Amino acid sequence: AKQLGRDGVTAFVPAMREAAQDRFALEGDLRHAIARNELEVWLQPQVDHNGVRIGAELLLRWRHPERGLISPAAFIPVAEQSGLIIKIGDWVLGQAAQLSRTLTDHGQRLRLAVNISPRQFRQPELVSGIKHWLEASGADPELLVLEVTESLVIEDIVDTAAKMAELSTLGVRFSVDDFGTGYSSLAYLKRLPLHELKIDRTFVQDAPTDANDAALVEGILSVARHLGLQVVGEGVETPAHRDFLLERGCRYFQGYLYGMPKPLHEFLQDQLADQCS
Ligand code: C2E
Ligand code: CA
Ligand code: CA
Ligand code: CA
Questions:
Q1: Residue 144 Cα, ligand 4 centroid: separation in angstroms?
Q2: Confidence of residue 1 (pLDDT cuts 50, 70, 90)
């Protein structure tokens, strides 16, 4: 075996191997997660400037039989690398379409935002898959918002633009998630049928107290104004976060101040109970 120094590198190697084994085990388990009903859709409300609920974002959770509830930050990268994200993402889209139909059947027109990973967006069946779920459920396409990443926008603008154009004609909307963390240029953004930008919560968090983050948030709002896009500020935890955004023209908010993510059935129960009260 290789000789390694006593500088911490030796300790690092078993840790790396463990991480790799862990990842491998996770991938194996994830393969069966859908069939075993272990994946759950949770929802977090989105509100307008009056605090009125206008929609919700779907956030995945994995209820692992031994490990308990696993955060998407831990398994989405595994799903993305292994390609499992295509099946998982399609399942989430089906859940969104069904939920949307249930809500409109109860007279509730909420927009539902679904995260689409780059690999999921790149697959050739993306558009036909979404059309299938919309038709099967009878959901209104105009209530579906697809959250895409900035990297997607730059990587293959021709493919991205073609898919977005086709879905846009149906009424489906596009939101650029975590805006400001990537490197998309105005020139690229202008070529796409976008509806919205989401300001990443890492910027929102410190904007009221940190001049750099404040400038970034202002820059994003200015870009949005130029392009005629609406903006959602995410990670709004305090009235100070909301006021900072509101004073600078942000009109939509998401964060713990307005509601934590909740399991789908709980969200639906609350939503339908509100209607009767
Ligand atoms: P994201 O799309 O940026 O989602 C927002 C994350 O911020 C969520 O974390 C949400 O729970 C969290 N959050 C919301 N409000 C607050 C707040 O006020 N304060 C703080 N500190 N956090 C807040 P979550 O649910 O752990 O999801 C993490 C990421 O996993 C998401 O980030 C998204 O990139 C990814 N993800 C979740 N569901 C899906 C999915 O169905 N498909 C794909 N491709 N990715 C998903
Ligand atoms: Ca998102
Ligand atoms: Ca994120
Ligand atoms: Ca984010």
A1: 18
A2: very low
Distance 59 CA to ligand 1 centre (A): 6
pLDDT in tens, 207-241: 999 999 999 999 999 999 999 999 999 999 999 99
C-alpha 89/C-alpha 91 separation (Å) is 5
C-alpha–C-alpha distance, residues 231 and 246, integer Å: 11
* Ligand 1 atom closest to 234 (CA): 15
Averaged confidence pLDDT in the chain: 92
Helices 85-105 and 126-137, packing angle to 10 deg: 30
233 lines ligand 1 (CB under 6 A): no
Buried b (16+ CB within 10 A) or exposed e, 136-152: ebebbbebbbbbbbbeb
Q: Is 163 exposed, middle or buried (0-12, 13-18, 19+ CB in 10 A)?
A: buried
Q: What is the pLDDT of residue 159?
A: 94
Q: Is the pLDDT of residue 4 over 90?
A: no
User: What residues sit around ligand 3, an ion, with C-beta below 5 angstroms?
Assistant: 178
| CA 176 to centroid of ligand 4, rounded, Å | 10
